[in-house]
Recover the amino acids of this structure.
């Protein structure tokens, strides 16, 4: 009988706590984000002559990022979450190198410059399910759809202006699905949250290139491939009041594409296809913000 009463009492307390949990959660944060990006193509569709013909590398792309997450408890342990972020690039550099021979040998063109402009956007819609493992530990697996893009610039150094001025743009889009899990552990007013997520995407990049006068404008070439990402984030949440939490966090993200197709559009009307070796990025961000529940 004591076991039955204890079980019923625990169940009542558990349901009461859930009923007092806020249905809406709004999280707003600002983040300092730094990332690198690179891609390359081969000399032909088979992936050789040479295996790396042209390579673009962006380094230390830095700037502020704003994040907005809105979540709503919809049924039992289910939760619907919409996430939006915007990253504005304030500083960075690029390097463009073309090669005649395999394995990055016999370079015949090199260009360095600034990449202190650009933006990146991220949108996702997630369905989460909360699994209370214990009084302190919760797991929240989720699945969802996501889209993000990056608009990267190639510009002259102020003391090395070209004629016409260098102003090339590379915009890449990642559209696909994600699968992840949030693990949270609460100690009094402090919650420790680990977020791990993997994604699979369709990749599309389009470029407006004035580095080479043979390219068409405004669409000079495009690249298509399948791609994937991995993200690990850690957040500390501190309860300021019943409805407000302060957040401190960081996250590391990696993304890459498989090989695909690069199609160049020339001003003489000819389209040239070659192998897209792939693109890759690494990013790291640290954020501070507030979460409101009601």
């Amino acid at each position: 009988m004591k076991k039955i009463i204890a079980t019923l009492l625990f169940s009542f307390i558990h349901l009461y706590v859930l009923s007092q949990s806020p249905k809406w959660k709004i999280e707003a944060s600002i983040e300092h984000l730094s990332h690198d990006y690179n891609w390359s193509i081969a000399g032909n569709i088979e992936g050789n002559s040479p295996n790396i013909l042209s390579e673009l590398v962006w380094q230390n792309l830095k700037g502020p990022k704003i994040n907005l997450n809105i979540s709503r408890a919809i049924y039992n342990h289910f939760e619907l979450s919409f996430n939006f972020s915007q990253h504005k690039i304030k500083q960075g550099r690029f390097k463009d190198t073309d090669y005649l021979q395999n394995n990055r040998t016999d370079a015949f063109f090199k260009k360095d410059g600034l990449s202190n402009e650009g933006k990146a956007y991220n949108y996702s819609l997630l369905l989460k399910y909360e699994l209370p493992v214990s009084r302190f530990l919760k797991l929240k697996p989720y699945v969802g759809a996501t889209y993000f893009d990056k608009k990267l610039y190639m510009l002259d150094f102020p003391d090395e202006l070209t004629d016409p001025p260098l102003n090339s743009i590379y915009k890449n889009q990642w559209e696909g699905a994600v699968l992840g899990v949030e693990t949270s552990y609460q100690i009094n007013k402090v919650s420790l949250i680990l977020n791990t997520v993997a994604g699979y995407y369709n990749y599309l990049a389009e470029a407006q290139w004035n580095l080479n006068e043979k390219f068409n404008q405004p669409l000079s070439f495009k690249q298509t491939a399948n791609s994937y990402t991995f993200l690990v984030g850690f957040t500390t949440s501190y309860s300021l009041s019943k409805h407000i939490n302060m957040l401190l966090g960081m996250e590391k993200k990696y993304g890459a594409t498989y090989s695909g197709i690069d199609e160049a559009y020339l001003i003489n009307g000819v389209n040239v296809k070659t192998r897209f070796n792939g693109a890759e990025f690494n990013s790291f961000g640290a954020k501070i913000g507030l979460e409101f529940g009601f």
About this structure: The chain has one domain: 24-293. The mean pLDDT is 92.
